[in-house]
Design brief:
The complex is a heterodimer of chains A (116) and B (151).
Chain A: H1 2-23, H2 28-44, H3 47-55, H4 57-60, H5 64-81, H6 83-89, H7 95-111
Chain B: H1 10-15, H2 23-51, H3 60-76, H4 79-87, H5 89-92, H6 95-108, H7 114-121, H8 127-150
Helix pairs in contact in B: 2-3, 3-6, 6-7
Classes of the chains: A mainly alpha (116), B mainly alpha (151).
Chain lengths: 116, 151
């Protein structure tokens, strides 16, 4: 059942993105920014967590989870260090994603030739 | 010049002749590809929890890292961009699209050198996601923290 919900929710979030692409004049960069902000705001109301519990990777794989993870890391450290903690923790949970995207992106750019 | 193609209402008049995006078809493609990438992510989460004894919460990070690695390799081979033309938002919205935008920007500017080309242009497309993510998470985090203290 996990896989069915992951498919439906992950696919559903992509459909929202596709509708924004086709029905508005927003560029992909604008749509992605909107998605990340949406993820952070939804997590501010503890709604995104419920979606993650329910849909697993269906909620973790779309880029909206990036905003949710940023806020989560920030709030964990804020409990300990107050306002300073927000800056300390903001990249805590997303660090693996950003670091690996930079590393693999760099390595691929070094070892592959651009296509097309 | 006919009234129809007057510069003032040209955009409106020309719109009737532009091909309309096939909404239903595009959305089904985005739904299926986006859903499949999420299912792959779920499979990876299960793999890391069962084989490497990660807890279900911790397994998200290695699963997403694996997806990013796959996406970077497919981008280097030129496969992911073909998938993107087919799937639209289905391949752009998942985290693999984020990795694709970093890798393809880095590859595209390879001819300008490693420092000024690859490293400088890497975040050309993905930068906006990080900037707006951090700014919004910061603002929401401040508000939440204030409310928590206040309550």
């Amino acid at each position: 059942m996990d896989y069915v919900w992951a498919f439906l929710v992950g696919g559903g979030i992509c459909v929202v993105g596709q509708l924004l692409f086709d029905l508005t004049k927003l560029t992909p960069a604008h749509v992605m920014s909107i998605f990340v902000v949406t993820g952070a705001v939804l997590d501010g109301f503890d709604l995104y967590d419920k979606l993650v519990q329910f849909a697993g990777a269906g909620a973790l794989v779309p880029i909206t989870s990036f905003g949710h993870s940023l806020l989560h890391g920030a709030m964990v450290q804020a409990e300990e260090h107050g306002f300073l903690g927000i800056a300390i923790g903001i990249f805590q949970m997303t660090s693996a994603g950003i670091a690996s995207a930079i590393l693999f992106g760099f390595l691929i750019a070094v070892f592959f030739k651009p296509k097309g | 010049m006919s009234q129809k193609f007057h510069p003032d209402n040209y955009k409106k008049a020309a719109k009737a002749y532009q091909p309309k995006p096939n909404l239903l078809f595009n959305c089904s493609k985005a739904f299926i590809i986006g859903g499949l990438i999420s299912v792959l992510g779920q499979g990876l989460i299960d793999f890391y929890t069962n084989v490497f004894d990660f807890t279900e919460k911790e397994a998200g990070n290695p699963a997403i890292t694996t997806l990013i690695l796959l996406s970077a390799i497919l981008t280097g081979l030129g496969v992911y961009d073909k998938l993107g033309q087919f799937a639209g938002a289905g391949s752009a919205v998942p985290v693999t699209g984020f990795a694709n935008s970093i890798t393809s920007a880095a590859l595209e500017h390879k001819s300008e050198g490693l420092v000024l080309g690859v490293a400088t242009n890497m975040f050309k497309l993905a930068g906006s996601v990080i900037v707006f993510g951090v700014v919004s998470a910061y603002v929401v985090g401040m508000i939440r923290y204030l409310i928590q203290q206040w309550m």
